[in-house]
Specification:
By secondary structure, the protein is an alpha/beta fold. The protein has a single domain (4-22, 42-288), classed as Rossmann fold. The protein is built from eleven helices and ten strands. Strands 4-3-5-6-9-10 form a six-stranded parallel sheet, sandwiched between helices.
């Protein structure tokens, strides 16, 4: 989910957390695809690391995690600071480094000879780019799903109409910049889940948490040395009513990716088109498997 306010565009290791495992197990049991998924060949050592967008958590990837694990891949679904079951309060997170600490800690702990596939959704694309800057030799592939790759320069006019769609917190006082934002429930299906099953949008309404908007506003992420050697693939939802085409094209022009793939989905293809998204992830991985 992208957020635009005042002129800017916007334990954590899922496999190590008991409570996170319980949640994922329950969701995977509940997930019964209506069609048989053809399990394409994925390199046996592929390790996908999923990064959620604003207000979400590692839980939002539950369908994709089930499909990839069934296909034999290793999957990690992280909770960023204040997301999912991370105990941090969005109104106490003021820097992007604080917000992205769970991902940076995870990357730091990886063995030097291990490379992962980073997958970021929406605002989570900024977290992916930040991690690539710091651990370029540990990233095999970066995939951006309806995601922002770099901070938006100036105000995105396409999103000015959405200001009223968010509840805003001023944790430092009413005369200070906002510290937290959360999309109002009545806008969920219109903006984020317009093609998603009602069960998933209902789940999201229960689990979404405020996003640390001050931390995002203070993000200073640029393309670091050596980052362009990492293959970057953008996956674009053709029915995304939130991330407008004009905004997407501005990102592409700012930092052209290696490839652009499309999926018929809303802003949240992990809910609305999980099997198609799975297939695109497999396709993207296969395209660089010989590297």
């Amino acid at each position: 989910m992208f957020l635009l306010l005042n002129g800017f565009g916007f334990d954590p290791f899922g496999h190590c957390s008991l409570s996170s495992n319980i949640v994922f197990s329950a969701l995977c049991i509940a997930q019964r695809p209506s069609q048989e998924v053809e399990m394409a060949k994925i390199p046996s050592k592929s390790h996908f690391v999923f990064v959620h967008g604003a207000s979400h958590g590692g839980w939002c990837w539950y369908k994709i995690r089930c499909l990839l694990e069934k296909a034999g891949s290793k999957v990690t679904c992280l909770d960023l600071a204040s997301g999912g079951i991370n105990p941090s309060d969005a109104n106490s997170i003021f820097t992007f480094d604080e917000y992205n600490k769970p991902l940076i800690d995870f990357m730091s702990a990886l063995p030097e000879d291990e490379k992962v596939i980073l997958v970021g959704h929406s605002l989570g694309g900024l977290n992916v780019t930040d991690a690539m800057n710091k651990f370029v030799n540990k990233v095999h592939l970066a995939i951006y799903v309806n995601a922002q790759m770099l901070p938006q320069k100036g105000e995105d006019k396409d999103k000015s109409e959405y200001r009223h769609a968010f509840e805003i917190w001023h944790g430092l006082g009413p005369d200070k910049p906002p510290t937290g934002v959360l999309m109002r429930k009545e806008f969920h299906r219109k903006l984020m889940y317009n093609m998603s099953p009602e069960e998933d949008s209902t789940l999201a309404a229960i689990l979404l948490r405020p996003c640390p908007v001050m931390a995002v506003a203070n993000a200073n992420i640029r393309v670091g040395e050596g980052v362009n050697k990492v293959t970057r693939i953008c996956i674009r939802g053709t029915k995304d009513t939130f991330y407008k085409e004009k905004s997407f094209q501005a990102q592409i022009k700012m930092w052209p990716p290696s490839q652009i793939l499309t999926v018929e989905s809303d802003h949240s293809p992990f809910f609305s088109a999980p099997t198609q998204l799975f297939s695109l992830l497999v396709e993207a991985t296969a395209s660089i498997s010989s590297d």
